[in-house]
Specification:
The chain has 151 residues and is α/β, with parallel strands linked by helices. The chain contains two helices and eight strands; from the N terminus they run βαβαββββββ. Strands 1, 2, 5, 6, 7 and 8 form a six-stranded mixed β-sheet that branches. Strands 3-4 form a two-stranded antiparallel ribbon. The radius of gyration is 18 Å and the shape is elongated.
Length: 151
């Protein structure tokens, strides 16, 4: 199923929280319901580990693409036609020029199992360092996620 950043994802059977973590990583709002309170610790473990893995993957995607772009230009002896304006990396198609990859930088447990997630831009620069630059709240900001662990 297709969704865009800011959309709502409903998970009526929260279970271990994998859909919740995927929504957090992708910048979606998520509402999950789990009637078995025994899953609460498992869900929190999923959030911790899943968000770290998602962040590693985002940085890896940028580094892998930068390596690909450099090797492509060296092999073909020609520069790629487009440059991603957000990450300042050469890209193959015009569709990629505004693509941005984000990283989870804060997860706050609010009252009644509401979680607030803050994302920032994961940015790659030509000196091969990875930096984080903040987004304004109106651009990406905080996403609210809800867990209902009551029976």
């Amino acid at each position: 199923m297709y969704s865009m950043a800011g959309d709502y994802v409903l998970d009526p059977f929260l279970g271990t929280g994998t859909t919740l973590v995927a929504a957090m990583a992708a910048g979606r709002n998520s509402i999950g319901v789990e009637i078995d309170e025994g899953f609460e610790s498992v869900i929190w473990e999923s959030i911790q580990g899943g968000c770290m893995a998602a962040n590693d993957r985002q940085i890896g995607r940028l580094l892998e693409h930068a390596t690909f772009a450099a090797e492509y230009e060296k092999r073909k002896l020609v520069k790629m036609k487009y440059v991603n304006l957000v990450h300042e990396i050469p890209v193959m198609t015009r569709q990629e020029i505004n693509l941005s990859l984000n990283k989870i930088v804060a997860i706050q447990n609010q009252a009644n199992n509401w979680i607030s997630v803050t994302h920032e831009l994961c940015n790659y620069h030509c000196n091969n360092s990875v930096e984080l630059q903040g987004f304004s709240e109106s651009h990406l900001g905080n996403h609210q996620l809800a867990l209902d662990l009551t029976g």
